[in-house]
Design brief:
By secondary structure, the chain is α+β, with helices and mostly antiparallel strands. It has two domains: 5-216, no CATH class; 229-331, Phosphohistidine domain (Glucose Oxidase, domain 1). 44% of the residues lie in helices and 21% in strands. It contains 13 helices and 13 strands. The protein has helices at 15-32, 54-65, 69-89, 97-122, 127-135, 137-146, 151-158, 169-178, 184-192, 211-218, 272-275, 291-299, 310-313, and strands spanning 5-12, 39-44, 47-53, 193-199, 202-206, 229-231, 233-236, 239-247, 261-264, 280-283, 303-305, 319-323, 328-331. Strands 6-13-12-8-9-10-11-7 form an eight-stranded mixed sheet. Strands 1-3-2-4-5 form a five-stranded antiparallel sheet, sandwiched between helices. Helix 1 crosses helix 4 (97-122) and helix 4 runs antiparallel to helix 8 (169-178). The longest helix is centred in the N-terminal third of the chain and has 26 residues, at 97-122.
Length: 333
C-alpha cells in the first residue's frame, strides 16, 4: 500500500457534481498548471469520499503560497462574479436544452476558480497564506460560504420533473433533447455505490465487483473503536458537552435536537437553519475558513474542524465534550 494516498474529503454529493469535479481538475490544470491528477471518487449511499495523494495536495499548496495577494484576490472576485451570473441564470425554473448549455458553460468556468478558492483555504496553514486570508477575510468567507461546491446547480437539477442530479452533463443534454435516460439498473447502482478512478486526469469507472479490492489497494480501512479522544482545529472557542448527533446526509438534519453536538463530515448552506439547535459543531474536514468554521464564528457556536475521523469514532448518543479551547473532542460516556 502506497502511504502517499489518503482520504482527503468526504461529503454528500450527487453523481452530477462528482463528474463536474472530475472535469474541474482538468480545467484547473489548464488554468493554473497544477491540480490533483489522480483521485479515487468512491460514493456509497450518496456520500462521496475523495481519496487522493498528499504529494499532489502539497504541490497545490506550494503553488498557492507563491502567488501574489493581488492574484489571489482576483481569483476570489472572479469566482464570486461567475457565481452571481450562475444564480441569475437559474432563476427561471424551466430547463431547456439551450438554457442547460448556458448554465453548464458558466458552471464549468466557475469550477476552475472555485478549485483555486477551495485549495487556498487548505493552504492557510502556511503563514503567508494565512495573512492574506486574514486581510481579506470578508471576501474569502463570502466565497467559501456561498459557492460551496456549486451546490446551487445540484439543487436546481434535483427539483426538475425528474431528479437530473443522478445524470452527468452529457446525459442531461440527451434527456432534454430526446427524453432518453440511462437504464434503471445503472441509476440504482449510482444511488447505492460507485467508484470512479481518475488517473492522469482521465476517469475510468471501476466495476462494482472490484470496488472493495481496488479501495483496499490504496487506503487502509482502519478500526477506530478504541479511540475516545480526537484533536482538530479550533474554529470558535468555547467548552461545551452534550449527546453527539452524527449527520452524514442532509435528509437527516431534522433529527438534530436542541442541545446536541453536531458531528458531521463538513457543512454546507443547507445546514444553516439547523445549526442553531446545536451547542457545538465537530467536523471531519475543513479549516479555519471552511463553511462550518465561518458559520460557527458568526453564530458563536464552539466548533472544532478537521478532526478527519470524528464521524467514524463517535456514535449517536455518545456524551461528548467539545473543548474548543484546546481543540480536543472527547467521549465522556
Amino acid at each position: 500500500m502506497n502511504n502517499d494516498w489518503y482520504e482527503g474529503a468526504a461529503r454528500e454529493l450527487s453523481f452530477f457534481t462528482t463528474t463536474e469535479i472530475i472535469k474541474a481538475y482538468t480545467s484547473m490544470q489548464k488554468k493554473y498548471g497544477i491540480a490533483f491528477y489522480s483521485v479515487l471518487f468512491h460514493s456509497k449511499k450518496g456520500v462521496l469520499r475523495m481519496i487522493r495523494k498528499k504529494s499532489e495536495l502539497n504541490a497545490i499548496i506550494d503553488f498557492i503560497e507563491h502567488q501574489s495577494e493581488e492574484f489571489v484576490i482576483g481569483q476570489f472576485k472572479k469566482a464570486l462574479s461567475l457565481y452571481e451570473k450562475l444564480k441569475k441564470a437559474l432563476q427561471k425554473k424551466a430547463l431547456t436544452q439551450g438554457k442547460f448549455q448556458k448554465v453548464i458553460s458558466l458552471c464549468e468556468e466557475l469550477w476552475a476558480y472555485n478549485m483555486f478558492c477551495i485549495y487556498f483555504t487548505y493552504a492557510t496553514e502556511r503563514k503567508r497564506v494565512k495573512e492574506i486570508s486574514g486581510r481579506n477575510y470578508a471576501l474569502v468567507a463570502k466565497v467559501r460560504n456561498e459557492i460551496c461546491n456549486v451546490l446551487i446547480l445540484e439543487r436546481f437539477l434535483r427539483h426538475q420533473k425528474i431528479d437530473l442530479s443522478e445524470l452527468n452533463g452529457r446525459e442531461i443534454q440527451l434527456y432534454l433533447d430526446k427524453k432518453e435516460l440511462p437504464d434503471e439498473k445503472e441509476l440504482k447502482e449510482r444511488r447505492e455505490e460507485y467508484l470512479i478512478f481518475m488517473q492522469d486526469l482521465k476517469a475510468t469507472r471501476i466495476p462494482r465487483s472490484k470496488i472493495q479490492s481496488t479501495l483496499i489497494h490504496y487506503i487502509e480501512d482502519a478500526d477506530y473503536t478504541h479511540l475516545r479522544e480526537l484533536k482538530g482545529i479550533v474554529a470558535f472557542k468555547g467548552n461545551v458537552s452534550g449527546p453527539a448527533r452524527i449527520i452524514l446526509r442532509k435528509k437527516d438534519l431534522h433529527l438534530l435536537k436542541k442541545g446536541e453536538i453536531l458531528v458531521t463530515l463538513s457543512t454546507s448552506p443547507d445546514f444553516v437553519p439547523y445549526l442553531l439547535k446545536s451547542v457545538g459543531i465537530v467536523t471531519d474536514y475543513g479549516g479555519v475558513v471552511s463553511h462550518a468554521a465561518i458559520i460557527a464564528r458568526e453564530e458563536k457556536i464552539p466548533c472544532i474542524v478537521g478532526t478527519k475521523i470524528a464521524t467514524k469514532v463517535f456514535k449517536n448518543g455518545d456524551f461528548v465534550e467539545v473543548d474548543a479551547e484546546k481543540g480536543v473532542v472527547r467521549k465522556i460516556k
